Amino acid sequence: MPVFDFFPELTGTAAANPWILAVALAACHYNTSSRQKPSSSLSRKLPDVAMHGLARDFISCSPSRSPPSSPQSSRPPVDMPLELVLSIVEAAYVQDSPDSIALLKTCSLVCRSWSVPVQKLLFRSVTLRTDTAYASFSAAVGAGTPHSRVLGAAIRHLRVVIDYSQPSYLHQRAFAHAVTMCPNLQELDVALYGLADSFSGADALGTVDSSRLRRRAPSFDQETLETLRSGPSIQSLSFSNWSENQECVYQLLDLWPALRSLSMSGTSPHLLPSASSTPYPGSLESLRINFQTPPSLEFMSWLLHQSQTTGSLKSLTFDRDPCPDLFDHFLDAFGPSLQSLSTPNFPCNTTRTVESSCDNLEFLRMDRPQLNPLAYKSVPKTIKHLAIGIDRDTPLQPVIDVVKGKPALEEVTVRLWNGGEGHRLLPALKIACAYRGVELRVTKDADDYKKAFMNVSCFPHRF
């Protein structure tokens, strides 16, 4: 390509690019005495003449005008406000999620200004399962330094696992000391696993020795109880008892008589003769039960005596199908005060309906895709949020009727089970919700389904 044909491809005007003038001057200073002077056919001669000048003078010639410098290049970098950074990190954080914990660990190493605020978020929820974990926790929180006190004050939720079948189990006294290191603790989650009885010999064919299924666990000793009593006054307790011990739940309830939220699972408690004379003095607002067998009505009456008197119970959750007697007992005693009710299914032989018993119910959750036909007929007119599960065979027309007939309804959350995404009436449900202005959330993920209830106003705690 001729050199002058090359220039228009790089620039449009010579004034804006002073190196074009330098090339032209190089061509003029070139010694042409030994060559024939350029003729009118300049395009044939000039390439050979000007090429050497271009190579020599283009490199050495400086432009007559330097390009204007960008005004942003001289400005110092502007840091994002720390409050905004922490808001973004906190929005991405999900409690007890391994990915979130890894995210917080990485963010705490970014810079010094991020380190302490992110560590406080990382220590908001702590889990202790072994004596080794307690030693590390004590070194970080109980060292007596200003930084350790900051981390201890940041803890809001503590989960401990006391498993006597493990070689390095968390001792009950270590558990008590860990609680005292958290002055602002609000939620305590205790899981107790007993030690299996030793077994020798062989079972008869087709039988299982019942002693093999027993798991013993000692009660909390007096020193542990005194240490716990000197610690913070928590608002929420979750106790999972996977042992035969019936006394531990009474010991924990005696330590915190002003609980607002209680969750119990595992072995069903029975009313002990020593506790029958004095009912639990606390007024619970939220109760969750997940027992292997239905608890005794005597124990539930002992536990909820003050709650029934004051009408404080607002949220009730059954993780397993409740028996008809227990379900009727709760509706009779707490129906007028309930604002939130969660159950896998409605008992078939119940003599009470939610519509007639729960005058103030705002949230109703029924997870099973195949429900008792009375379930949708008993939805009260005060309902604002309905959560259900559907599969390919779920009768969906009653749900559509609820959307059309309940004027207070604002939100419907649907969890899709087997083939639920292909239900023939799912588009009709979407149309009915859109027509009424009801927000519809559809998900197949169990975690996303549970997250939809975290912001429900009638849930004072996360249980």
TrEMBL record:
InterPro entries linked to this entry: LRR_dom_sf (IPR032675)
Name by which UniProt lists this protein: F-box domain-containing protein
Organism name: Candolleomyces aberdarensis
